[in-house]
């Protein structure tokens, strides 16, 4: 009977220790949940940056399209004016040479502008892609941390089940011990 009581005391001490560990684990889970909320807030901010970069990229493309459209309209207007006001053939030769040289310079400038605009658009697309990659990595980190939280919750659940089984076993052993004590004949 004395050994059994010592076993019961040892089991009770173990149960108290397990309860303390469960409280510590619960505190860790609360801390991890707070971290997850902070990461979610960071993700919202990063998503805002990505959408702002996308908007800027679309604006650059729209500006480029409007410039090209304006240049095309100006060239058509110049062509119509030349057609409406023909000059004598001799005067036109020198002017045609000058105009062709101007057209070449204009086309080269347009090409340079287009290349610059395309470079800007490409850089903005690269920025957007990098930011999307960062968002994806952060989402992966959040998912891994959620998986860790779930595994820790599973561990807590298993430990609770073990504690419950230990309590049931202690209760059964007490009942058996009490039954044995009752069955023993009293000496008197």
What does this structure look like?
This protein is mainly α. The chain has one domain. 95% of the residues lie in helices and 0% in strands. It is built from two helices and no strands. Helix 1 packs antiparallel against helix 2 (89-183). It is rod-shaped, with a radius of gyration of 41 Å. The two termini are 20 Å apart. The mean pLDDT is 82. Residues 69-98 are annotated as: Disordered. Residues 81-98 have a biased composition (Basic and acidic residues). Residues 69-80 have a biased composition (Basic residues).
Observed structural traits:
mainly alpha
Terminal Cα separation, in Å? 20 Å
Overall mean pLDDT stands at: 82
Given the C-alpha coordinates, what overall shape results?
rod-shaped
Largest β-sheet summary: none
Explain briefly what this protein structure is.
By secondary structure, this protein is mainly alpha-helical. The chain contains 2 helices and no strands.
List the helices and strands and how they pair.
Blueprint: H1 2-84, H2 89-183
């Amino acid at each position: 009977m004395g050994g059994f009581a010592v076993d019961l005391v040892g089991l009770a001490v173990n149960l108290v220790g397990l309860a303390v560990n469960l409280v510590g684990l619960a505190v860790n889970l609360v801390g991890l949940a707070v971290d997850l909320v902070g990461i979610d807030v960071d993700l919202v901010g990063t998503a805002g940056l990505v959408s702002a970069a996308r908007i800027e990229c679309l604006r650059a493309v729209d500006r480029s399209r409007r410039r090209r459209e304006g240049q095309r309209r100006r060239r058509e207007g110049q062509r119509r004016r030349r057609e409406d006001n023909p000059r004598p053939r001799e005067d036109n030769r020198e002017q045609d040479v000058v105009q062709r040289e101007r057209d070449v310079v204009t086309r080269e400038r347009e090409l340079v502008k287009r290349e610059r605009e395309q470079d800007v658009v490409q850089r903005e697309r690269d920025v957007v892609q990098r930011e999307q990659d960062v968002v994806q990595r952060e989402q992966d980190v959040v998912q891994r941390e959620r998986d860790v939280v779930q595994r820790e919750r599973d561990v807590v659940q298993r430990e609770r089940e073990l504690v419950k089984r230990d309590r049931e076993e202690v209760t059964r052993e007490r009942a058996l011990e009490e039954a044995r004590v009752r069955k023993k004949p009293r000496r008197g």
